[in-house]
Amino acid sequence: MIEKRFGVENELRWIIVDSGKGQIDQAIMEEYNLDSELMSYALDKNERAHLEYDSVHDRLLLIFGLLDPIKEDNHYETVPMTFIVQNGQFITIVNDRNAYLLKKIESYMAMHSIVSCHQFLFVVLTLALKEYFPVLDQLDREKDALNAKLRKKTTKSLLLELSDLETGLVYLLTTANQNVLLLEQLRNQPRTQKLDRMELEELEDALVEARQLVAMTQLDSQILQQLSGTYNNILNNNLNDNLTILTIISILLAVVSVITGFFGMNVPLPWTDQPQAWIWVIILSGVLWLILAQLLKWFMSRKG
After folding, report:
1. What is the pTM of this model?
2. Which of 42, 130, 202, 238 has the CB geometry, 3.0–4.6 Å to 82, for a possible disulfide?
3. For residues 188 and 48, which has the higher predicted lDDT (pLDDT)?
4. Domain residue spans of the chain
5. Mapping DSSP to helix (H, G, I), strand (E, B) and coil, where does residue 45 land?
6. What are the tens digits of pLDDT across the range 193-202?
7. Could you give the CA distance from residue 34 to residue 3 in angstroms, rounded to a whole number?
8. How far is 285 from 274, CA to CA, in rounded Å?
């Protein structure tokens, strides 16, 4: 376990605990008044957005959904990050997948003044939310480029790329919705109602960013679903057209096979004694083939 401490003003300590370096030391847990149940939530890599407030210790545990900047299986996913606010301490538990946010926080601190743990928390949540928007812009450009390629030629590989985009947006949309619910729950929490105006404004800024993220992600997800359904219908129509053509060809070929099949039977038929009868058979088959082709063409035009 690696632990780093940063002083913020005089009344706030920012404590960073790297959970990817080993088990949590019991001494660290006792020093920061962290119990095992609390840390089980904090260290769960599959934990979703979650909020807990311990009124006895005046301790706020918040697990927030961050963007994972590294693609897995050709699409983006999200990763939880844990924040604990208690007794003038802002504890951040990070791992390899979400530690990138620390540099963003440090850059912000270098240019702004932070006076309380809650203000610090809301600022960090806003910074975390802003990390989504460049990725959404990138996905939007990829969607447009992919749509242009699919309009020219619908291939399996392009459809798989479309599926990857759609899968990634499902992850982002789910986490964005959970983050909004978390922030609304935090705003309605009785302890939050006692914060000062500046802290509440920072919380509102984070909530505005979260709602905007939901709106953008939901729009992109709906567009991708529509594109996926459209190209699925196109493929089904192409399949139906191909089956129709094959059916027409099989019907037309059946004319020749039926006529020639009669002459292959051991029964008396006209022209069986004439050496040039095969010419008349071919001519007759061709005439019937043309007549049937015109009838099928007329029938298909009426159906269309």
Report:
1. 0.77
2. 42
3. 188
4. 2-237, 238-303
5. coil
6. 888 888 899 9
7. 15
8. 17
Handedness of CA 104, 109, 110, 112 (dihedral sign): positive
Burial of 183: CB neighbours in 10 Å, binned 0-12, 13-18, 19+:
buried
Pairwise pLDDT comparison (168 vs 115), residue with the higher score? 168
Token pair, residue 58, equals 């005046």
- Fill in the DSSP letter of residue 113: -
Residue 124 scores a pLDDT above 50: yes
- CA separation (Å) from 236 to 8, 255, 269, 303? 61, 29, 46, 18
Q: How far is CA 239 from CA 115, 156, 246, 248, in A?
A: 65, 14, 11, 14
Confidence of residue 274 (pLDDT cuts 50, 70, 90): low
Q: Are strands 12-18 and 2-8 parallel, antiparallel or unpaired?
A: antiparallel
